[in-house]
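Section: Multi-chain targets

For targets with more than one molecule, the full set of components is provided together so that the structure can be written out for the assembly as a whole rather than chain by chain. Components appear in the order listed by the source. The example entry contains two components.
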Amino acid sequence: MTPRTLFDKLWDAHQVKAETESTPGVLYIDLHMVHEVTSPQAFDELRARGLKVRRPDRTLATLDHSTPTLPPDADGKRPYYTQEAEAQVARLEANVREFGIDLMGWDSPQRGIVHVAGPEVGATQPGMTIVCGDSHTATHGAFGALAFGIGTTEVGHVLATQCLLQRKPKSFAIHVDGALQPGVTAKDLILHIIGTIGIGGGTGHVLEYTGEAIRAMSMEERMTVCNMSIEAGARAGLIAPDETTFAWLAGRERVPKGQAWERAVAHWRTLPTDEGATYDREVRIDASSIEPSVTYGTHPGMVVPIHAPVPAAADAVEQRALDYMKVTAGKPMAGEAVDVVFIGSCTNGRLSDLRAAAGILRGRRVAGGVRMLVVPGSEQVRREAEREGLHEVFRAAGAEWREPGCSMCIAMNGDLAQPGQLVVATSNRNFEGRQGKGARTVLASPLVAAASAVAGRVADPREYMNQEAAA
Amino acid sequence: MSTTSRPLAYVHSRTAVLRNENIDTDRIIPARFLTTTERTGLGKHCFEDWRYAADGSDDPAFPLNQPQARGCSILVAGRNFGCGSSREHAPWALLDYGIRAVISSEIADIFRGNALKNGLVAIVISEAEHRWLMDNPGVELRIDIAEGTIRLPDGGVVRFDLDAFSRHCLLNGVDQLGFLLQQQADIAAYEQRTEEAA
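Its structure, encoded as tokens over all components, is:
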């Protein structure tokens, strides 16, 4: 039999009908995650046609994008940014009731950002196809699932038929050799990868991350890497499942139990890419050469090591990006004055991210004039962080400890920066205006973000690690 | 309600040009307008943070505000148009603004799929041809979906690839959900086959 890649195996196993010259294939979807922003028009379409949700048991909803991260008032009223945001959340609550879908809603201890909460409850499993009306669905690829973002029309297709019309993308292997240095994280690696292949470098492809540095990563680190595949233009990013994956999933609510678990793991062991299988494209990255990295421009591919000079603009568009960011070619990003620090999002809002940031903030203070928001990715992350006392570390340092949600990553819930403010953010997009009109975003790891909060300027976390906090 | 039900064979218009590369979906429609539960009415917010001056009037520096760009329904844009999020609000906003076709040398995957499903023709052409269109705003083009051609005023023809199914759906107003619903017997058979095996 012809050797196949992980991607080939996932694709082949979900073909209801193979593609032909004249029609795309029909691809079966094992898990459809739904949130309030990209679903209302799809539910309207079903209603207009008198259709039901084909598989409510394969559909799971959450509230995350439009939700406030400040607690309700004494009367239980939540401080929505706008009436429209509140109405959008109410619409999803009504839609899941009408169509019989599970919702991790306000009263659920499992509510969270769709790409944090889905894996936590064990809904995300190796070998699956997973979609959501959200481009960061690639996150779930960390488990060896083919996971990608779709538009609202396709949300309707999956609700009604559990299928999508798809042509097979090309494959692209990213081999990451060696080991990351101390103080260098999964976030620095993926920023480096995007900087290397470019923000359109993965267009039309599904990425597979392989190699020693990937195998050494925890599941949370793998999710950070796969999360940002779309920032390189790739709809999906994959990592082959292994013992780390199985150990992380074991015992979670929605995974198979008993003998069914054993059978599932046996199947999952067959998924990794076969010896001799080939990819359409391949690139090698040396993990040991990567420094803590930050963005300096207005897309995630404009990235540099923190002490390296910002490159000269190659054209007028790049110059406009430097002007918008108010950064100077030839100068490093380290030392740029910071106004806001945001720790959270589906990229870096998990427990290990909060631990990393707290490790730097413990016994230190956020610099005067800097506002710092820490937003856990889910209720579970919040509970675990609070059990460890991380919220006290953040509060003692002068940071705000918020309720779970997408928050300042997409800035549609009122958590946003003012025009001109520089935000060091652990999220995934630094587009113009992404975090508020005129806001200037620098993407970074939780370590860099925490160090920058303390320094009041973009700072190298290694200056704050392996040494006692200042008394 | 079905968004692809209107057959579309040609788009005939002068071009407006946005030279910027990597025009992301936050540029096309900022996230703060995504709390809508409708598909309609987003045109007034299309390129919101780019097209208006501080006092809310049209910023004359924004290329689409210039007199010769008014009324153009073909947008020629820099490489990697539509990168970023999966928000279908981006093609909805462009259509409501009056754009019927986007031409670039590279268009992001999710945006392109969303656009075609809404009858917004998203076309990728070669870099040389793209550069010429970028350098010559306001030319009168006739996009022929069936032929896969763009006709220039001087008689020149630019060919583009469009997968056969997208072409068929545009030309005949085929509703893709209707097409998928016709596959239900095969879908049920697939479910039976795979769920028994599990």
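Chain B has a mean pLDDT of 95.
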